[in-house]
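Students often ask why inverse folding is considered easier than folding. One informal answer: many sequences map to the same fold, so there is more than one right answer. In these notes we will look at a single instance of the problem. The structure comes first.
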């Protein structure tokens, strides 16, 4: 497919095969070999691989975008690299050095640059994954590991752009429990949420809101996104207790809001607080910000702003997107420019 054949305006958040992927390997000793850029394609893997039998794997989600200034930019890639390292530690895998991680991401963006959508019409979604690919029998760390990075052009995660979504609180299912792996992007965290999400969508909702697994009283996450609500101009978001993913978009919105003078409180957010708020939204790399139009819990439905986007939600969205597209000054130093002419380490 040539660039001229890509219908940028019809992009959804889905997989489109691009040209190249990145592969690097490491033995249990923890020394990563230099990675190579290969044509996108299938991989061979041992059926006894640790990732297949015991779920020893993590991933990240990032985006490269064409800015209004004509640059190709990444948003805070150092934070993704550090979260990737924390996840590797938690699952007993050798962390990928930050320099290798960022260099590999840049190579993928440069090698697949024809797939980066024009400014304002999407992004190149970047998926780094770390798998225990060495064969192992018995619950123990795999003897070898593979870092793989692939990319795909994407449109909005929720259809309709900045439009309100309806959510359903689940009393039956939980995303994570204290002491587990809910605070890292472990691959095993996501499959259990598929069935509740599918069931919610069958009922007309965009996604499920998960409550805490201990008291079943506090909002934790929206599917794979972080939750915020706003009441009397104060912004609330669930505190990080080890069961909630420390989202990079979440942290960035907290910084933006405080910079603008808003009070932001990180605490346990009860369903009562969430459903008495004036505005609510969820956020993440994929979703960016998705305003919440309603939350249903049992027989009770809370509708926000008559299902219109709230003032503070829109202000935060416009600032975050403006920083990402270089139409708003990046006072935080978050944006990372990619040199598309960098040397690509082809196999």
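Output (designed amino acids):
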């Amino acid at each position: 497919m040539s660039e001229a054949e890509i219908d940028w305006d019809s992009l959804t958040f889905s997989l489109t095969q691009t040209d190249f992927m990145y592969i690097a390997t490491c033995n249990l000793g923890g020394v990563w070999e230099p990675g190579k850029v290969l044509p996108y394609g299938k991989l061979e893997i041992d059926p006894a691989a640790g990732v297949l039998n015991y779920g020893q794997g993590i991933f990240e989600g990032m985006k490269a975008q064409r800015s209004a200034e004509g640059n190709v930019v990444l948003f805070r890639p150092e934070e993704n690299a550090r979260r990737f390292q924390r996840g590797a530690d938690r699952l007993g895998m050798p962390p990928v050095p930050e320099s290798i991680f960022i260099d590999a991401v840049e190579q993928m963006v440069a090698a697949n640059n024809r797939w980066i959508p024009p400014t304002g019409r999407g992004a190149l979604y970047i998926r780094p994954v770390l798998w225990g690919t060495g064969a192992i029998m018995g619950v123990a760390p795999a003897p070898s590991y593979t870092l793989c990075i692939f990319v795909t052009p994407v449109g909005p995660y929720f259809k309709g752009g900045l439009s309100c979504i309806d959510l359903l609180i689940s009393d039956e299912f939980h995303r994570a429990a204290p002491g587990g792996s809910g605070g890292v992007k472990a691959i095993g965290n996501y499959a259990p949420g598929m069935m509740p999400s599918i069931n919610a969508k069958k009922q007309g909702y965009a996604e499920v809101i998960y409550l805490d697994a201990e008291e079943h009283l506090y909002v934790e996450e929206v599917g794979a996104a972080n939750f915020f609500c706003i009441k009397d101009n104060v912004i609330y978001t669930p505190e990080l207790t080890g069961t909630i993913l420390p989202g990079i978009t979440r942290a960035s919105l907290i910084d933006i809001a405080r910079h603008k003078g808003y009070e932001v409180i990180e605490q346990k957010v009860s369903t009562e607080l969430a459903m008495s708020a004036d505005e609510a939204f969820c956020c993440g790399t994929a979703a960016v910000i998705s305003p919440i139009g309603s939350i249903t819990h049992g027989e009770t439905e809370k509708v926000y702003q008559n299902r219109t986007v709230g003032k503070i939600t829109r202000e935060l969205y416009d600032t975050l997107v403006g920083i990402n597209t270089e139409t708003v000054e990046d006072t935080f130093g978050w944006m990372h420019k990619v040199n598309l002419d960098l040397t690509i380490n082809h196999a």
